[in-house]
Write a structure and sequence with these properties.
The chain contains 11 helices and 11 strands. It is α/β, with parallel strands linked by helices. Helix 3 crosses helix 7. About 2% of the residues have low confidence.
Length: 309
C-alpha cells in the first residue's frame, strides 16, 4: 500500500496513507504523522475529547523529534484518560505557534484564517476553529496580541512572553525520575539514581506513592513541566514510565532511558532503538548515569569541582 488517500484514524480528515503490509503510516494535516499496526484492534475514537487528546499527543511526539510515533491500543486508551490542558497552556501553544510564524510586530495575520488551520487546532488541543478563536481572545486579553479590522499582530509583550516560554525549561535544575515504585527498586533510587543526578549537578524529583489509575495527576504533569530533563527507568516494565516518558518527549524534554541489565530484553520494541543505559547495581548505576547526564546536558548548576572527576 503506497501513497493513497483516506480518512485519518484519529480525526477523520483526509490524510495520506503509506506503508507495506500491516504497518500503516498516516500523515494528517491536523494530527501530524503516526503509524499503526493494522493487525491490532484499535479502540474507536468515539468522542471529540478523545480525538483532541490523541491528536495533540501525536503533535507533541512529532515536535519532540519522533517522526512517526507508533499508536498502540494501549497508548490510545491511556491518552483518552489524560486530562486536557487548561486554557493557559493551550493559549501558550498558540502564542508559540504565532511567534514562529509572525515573529515581528509588522507581520500581521488574519485571525479567522489562522484558527481554521488544522495544524494549529491539533497543536493547541482544539475541537474546532471556535475553540482556537477563544485562545486568540485569551492572548488578546493578556495584551500579547493587538490589532484591528485588517488583522492582528504580536505585541512586544507577546514576543517577550513567547521568548520566556522557550527559556523556562532550560533554566530548571530539576530532573524528573520516572520509575517503578516497587520496593525492590527503593535501594536503587536511594544509592543510584538520586546521588547520580546530584553528582551531575542537578536535583532529582520523584513522585512517590501507588501507581495512578487512568490519567496522570495534575501534580505529576506540573512537575514534569518544571523539569529540565527526565530519567526514565524501564526496569519492571511499568506502563506509567512509558507514558510519562512519552509526555516528557512531547514537551521537548531530553529523556535519558535506563534499564537494569537483566530486563533489557523486555523493553518494548518501539524503544529498543534508543541508547538505553544498562546498569547492574546501584554503584554501577551511580557512575554510569552521572557520566551520561554530564555528556548529554553538561554539568548542572549545583555541580562541584570535586564531582567532575
Amino acid at each position: 500500500m503506497h501513497g493513497h488517500k483516506g480518512p485519518c484514524q484519529i480525526c477523520g480528515n483526509p490524510a495520506e496513507h503509506d506503508g507495506d503490509g500491516d504497518i500503516r503510516i498516516v500523515r494528517c494535516p491536523r494530527c501530524g504523522r503516526y503509524q499503526v499496526d493494522a493487525t491490532r484492534a484499535w479502540p474507536k475514537v468515539g468522542t471529540a475529547d478523545h480525538m483532541v487528546r490523541l491528536s495533540g499527543w501525536v503533535r507533541e511526539q512529532n515536535a519532540a523529534g519522533i517522526d512517526v510515533p507508533n499508536i498502540t491500543p494501549e497508548i490510545s486508551r491511556a491518552v483518552a484518560q489524560r486530562p486536557l490542558p487548561g486554557l493557559k497552556e493551550r493559549s501558550d501553544r498558540v502564542l508559540a505557534f504565532l511567534a514562529r510564524e509572525y515573529p515581528r510586530p509588522e507581520l500581521w495575520f488574519v485571525p479567522d484564517a489562522i484558527v481554521r488551520g488544522l495544524d494549529l487546532q491539533g497543536i493547541a488541543y482544539c475541537r474546532d476553529n471556535r475553540d482556537a478563536m477563544l485562545l486568540i481572545h485569551v492572548l488578546e486579553h493578556e495584551n500579547f496580541l493587538q490589532g484591528g479590522a485588517s488583522g492582528m499582530f504580536l505585541t512586544i509583550r507577546g514576543i517577550l512572553a513567547a521568548e520566556a516560554l522557550g527559556r523556562s525549561v532550560s533554566q530548571s535544575a530539576q530532573c524528573f525520575v520516572a520509575m517503578s515504585f516497587d520496593d525492590s527498586l527503593r535501594e536503587s533510587y536511594t544509592n543510584g539514581f538520586d546521588p547520580a543526578i546530584v553528582r551531575a549537578g542537578y536535583r532529582a524529583f520523584r513522585i512517590d506513592g501507588k501507581d495512578y489509575v487512568g490519567g496522570i495527576s495534575d501534580e505529576m504533569i506540573a512537575e514534569i513541566r518544571r523539569s529540565r530533563f527526565m530519567v526514565a527507568d524501564y526496569t519492571l516494565q511499568s506502563n506509567n514510565v512509558y507514558f510519562e516518558a512519552g509526555f516528557a518527549l512531547g514537551l521537548g524534554l531530553i529523556v535519558i532511558p535506563t534499564c537494569r541489565e537483566d530486563e533489557a530484553e523486555l523493553l518494548h520494541f518501539d524503544i529498543r532503538h534508543l541508547n538505553a543505559l544498562h546498569w547492574k547495581n546501584s554503584e554501577d548505576l551511580l557512575n554510569k548515569l552521572s557520566q551520561r547526564i554530564r555528556a548529554v546536558l553538561g554539568a548542572g548548576p549545583y555541580a562541584r569541582d570535586d564531582e567532575a572527576r
